[in-house]
Design goal:
Layout lengths: L2 E4 L8 E4 L2 H4 L1 H7 L3 E3 L21 H9 L4 E4 L17 H16 L3 E5 L3 H4 L8 H19 L6 E4 L12 H21 L9 E4 L7 H14 L4 E7 L3 H5 L9 H17 L7 E6 L13 H17 L3 E4 L16 H10 L6 E2 L3 E5 L7 E6 L5 E6 L2 E2 L6 E4 L2 E4 L1 H8 L5 E10 L5 E8 L3 E2 L2 E4 L3 E6 L5 E8 L20 E4 L4 E4 L1 H5 L7 E7 L4 E9 L2 E6 L2
Parallel strand pairs: 3-4, 3-10, 4-5, 5-6, 6-7, 7-8, 8-9, 9-10, 12-19
Antiparallel strand pairs: 1-2, 11-13, 13-17, 14-15, 14-18, 16-17, 18-19, 20-22, 21-28, 22-25, 23-26, 24-25, 26-27, 27-28
Helix pairs in contact: 6-7, 10-11, 11-12
Length: 554
Amino acid sequence: MVAAAAVIAGSVTPVVVAADARARSAMDQVAAMQPGWNLGNSLDSTGGDETSWGNPRITEALLDNVKAQGFKSIRIPVTWSAHLGPAPDHTIEAAYLDRVKEVVRWAVARGLYVMVNLHHDSWQWINTMPADRAGVVNRFNAVWRQLAAAFRDFGPRLTLESVNEPQFTGSSGQAQEIELLNELNASFRDIVRRSGGNNAGRLLVLPTLHTSANQPLVDALANQMRGFNDPNLAATVHYYGYWPFSVNIAGGTRFDAIAQKDLTDYFDRVHSAFVAKGVPVILGEYGLLGFDRHTGTIEQGEKLKFFEHLGYYARAKKITTMLWDNGQHLGRTSLRWSDPELFAQIRSSWTTRSGTAFTDQVFNERSSAITAKTITLNLNGTTFLGLWHGDTALVRGRDYTVSGDRLTLTAQALTRLSGSRPYGTNAVLTARFSRGVAWRLHVITHDRPVLSNSSGTTASFAIPTAFRGDLLATMEARYADGTNAGPHDWTSFKEYDRTFKPDYPNGTTALTADFFAAVRDNSPVTLTFHYWSGLTVMYSVTKSGSAVTGVVTP
């Protein structure tokens, strides 16, 4: 076994490693951290304490529950900005540091791996480094010297992450930003290693710029890490999906081939740059950006396909994943999942693939006779076993047929399942496969939605909508000359919930102040509402000052 040693620039900390130690130790530890969960919007909140963003105080019961759900690691994002004293020492508030240490101890005591970082500090003050390089470096170093000392005697289940989503404002460009991040990452590593104790060999996590897997940013971090010659390092990136799909804009309503390729290309790049060369990768956050508003911004079946594929492909590329959860998934006091079906899909993806389908909706128009409906299955290497309605197995040949990946529901079965055909979901079927979780199919009765004239203001405008069982997928907005109206005018398709939002219980479709802020005065805008049944309905709105009128388009 040949040993190698290297001293990083500006450092007097030599790191002696066995030639094959990286693959044997850091890779194994990161693999043991799979799967992981983020304790978001708690200690990373930017107010006075961990409750300032609306989540309750962290409890041991919460961590017990996280462990019971099957998670092996927990990322504890921490924002230190509001708890630092003045320069030059930037002393961390003792009570706050003690609270962070307490939560870390609770997690470690439960056998969880833990990752602690500098979180929203990245955009609160670290981002000013182009204009205040010395000031930011001094503050960054002061914080990490204190954290290194505080955690030096914690066991190896604790990992430390340099900084969350590093970013810079007022730079001369990407080259300078990479240089600045390299300086911070090198300083972080050197400070922690110098502090001794268990920090001498602790797993340290270094991010790419913006925690992005764009090739130049991945290459920059890979080059720096090679220079360190340190066996106990991991790289980290974040992934929130193909942006149009992630927020439901520009017609990105489905997890289609484009969205899927974005995911696989992303993971392929970090695998090639790091994992294939023996450097472990942690996907420190993943999810969908629309979830920051609510999880309904993305249609249920489409989001399930996204998480199924992400879990599968991360496993294939040996990338450890950490689900971002700011409280919208696992209730911090209820200790229940807000969407059990979503979590079941995520949990299943940790170990196997699940069969899915092109859609989870089967629409039957009430004004027409019911006909047979065919759905394409995504078998994902599984075998289709059958179709159930509750505990009752549907009869193959009578209720449905299967030809390759084509599942056809017969008109007879759909008629029986739809009953008296009230608007909305009449029945929920489950397609079972040889592995993974079942796929639900909602049998829905609908008719073309009916919109009515309305008036209001830019701050409060809603279109009376009789949805009649249908569900809104997206909305287009164009002026009379065909140009795009509203925010993001590079596309006619507007962002779900940020510019328009359906209210099914109250029978309205609201247009938001954000939408009208980007609409010209006295210029009628034609809206095209696209529904999941495939139907479209048109409507016209005109803004005049703060007043808005809406009329049905013939």
